[in-house]
């Protein structure tokens, strides 16, 4: 374990010249600060810091540290994190994620203590958009995922120096996997109050319509993408008298029906249309379409396309002499 103690002026120099440069300014009454660091391997570090007093830390410069993520568990004091036009005021026990590739600011109005897990962005098994959307959103200390990751980090920090290099590597990876789970408890960016459920539902419906071709789209993905539980997803769709699966199937079939009625899509075969709306195969698509509309996709196309569309298609497909 590496332990560093510093004055406000000393930390200003350290922060400016670190592997992830930041601007640090100590406030009135700043006493000696302290940081203890455990190296976990593969650019993963776990540290525990005491700010020493009021301070402001600002990240604006570009540097080789642009692919790092910082997950902070706030332990004591008053502190807030600002990133991506969001501000999270943290209560003790709250967790918050920040990404170094974009500007961020940490403001402490008192002496504060925190635990920080720093690691390469590529190690977190979430999509880029999910990572960015999770930044500067406090994770409730009472959330099960947050309790698991904070308890694990606290225990790991105390015993990391007794682990072998290989064990540290495995333990660091396990911490990041727990963090991925905890981030699913992050609240979505919607207004509070009675209207928030309707906003989340509309966000989900839009996501479904924009991702019909994804044959792997499931209710679990909707829940993870919008930071709610699977049960909550079902409750939201119940408000419009359906289930997530039924809504997805309905939208796929409605989109397929529109394509079958569109002369511009005449060159697409039935299998092509099935793929375009996320069905696993033509047979599955045909059965679902017939069950919904009472005829096969081919019969629908023949009945609903104007005759001149067929003529135009034949001419267009004829080789020129």
TrEMBL record:
Keyword Transcription regulation on entry: yes
Q: Where is the HTH araC/xylS-type domain?
A: 202-303
Please indicate if the UniProt record lists Flavoprotein as a keyword: no
Question: Matching InterPro entries, A to Z?
Answer: AraC-bd_2, AraC_XylS_family_regulators, Homeodomain-like_sf, HTH_AraC, HTH_AraC-typ_CS
Query: Keyword set for this entry?
Result: DNA-binding, Transcription, Transcription regulation
Pfam families in UniProt: AraC_binding_2, HTH_18
**Name of the protein in its database record:** Helix-turn-helix domain-containing protein
The species this protein was found in: Kibdelosporangium philippinense
């Amino acid at each position: 374990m590496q332990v560093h103690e510093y004055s406000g002026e000393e930390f200003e120099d350290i922060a400016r010249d670190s592997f992830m440069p930041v601007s640090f300014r100590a406030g009135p009454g700043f006493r000696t600060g302290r940081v203890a660091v455990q190296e976990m391997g593969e650019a993963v570090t776990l540290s525990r810091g005491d700010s020493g007093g009021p301070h402001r830390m600002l990240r604006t410069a570009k540097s080789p540290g642009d692919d790092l993520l910082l997950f902070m568990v706030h332990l004591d004091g008053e502190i807030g994190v600002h990133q991506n036009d969001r501000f999270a005021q943290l209560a003790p026990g709250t967790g918050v994620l920040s990404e170094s590739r974009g500007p961020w600011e940490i403001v402490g109005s008192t002496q504060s203590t925190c635990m920080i897990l720093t690691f390469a962005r590529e190690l977190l098994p979430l999509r880029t958009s999910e990572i960015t959307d999770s930044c500067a959103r406090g994770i409730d200390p009472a959330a099960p995922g947050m309790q698991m990751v904070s308890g694990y980090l606290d225990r790991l920090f105390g015993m990391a120096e007794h682990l072998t290099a290989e064990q540290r590597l495995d333990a660091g990876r396990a911490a990041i996997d727990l963090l991925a789970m905890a981030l699913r408890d992050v609240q979505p960016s919607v207004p509070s109050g009675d209207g928030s459920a309707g906003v989340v539902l509309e966000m989900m419906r839009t996501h479904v319509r924009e991702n019909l071709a994804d044959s792997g789209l499931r209710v679990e993905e909707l829940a993870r993408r919008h930071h709610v539980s699977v049960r909550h997803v079902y409750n939201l769709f119940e408000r419009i008298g359906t289930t997530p699966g039924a809504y997805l199937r309905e939208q796929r079939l409605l989109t397929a029906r529109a394509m079958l009625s569109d002369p511009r899509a005449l060159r697409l075969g039935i299998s092509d249309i099935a793929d375009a709306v996320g069905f696993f195969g033509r047979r599955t698509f045909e059965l679902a379409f017939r069950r919904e509309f009472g005829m096969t996709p081919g019969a629908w196309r023949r009945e609903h396309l104007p005759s001149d569309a067929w003529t135009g298609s034949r001419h267009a497909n004829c080789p020129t002499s």
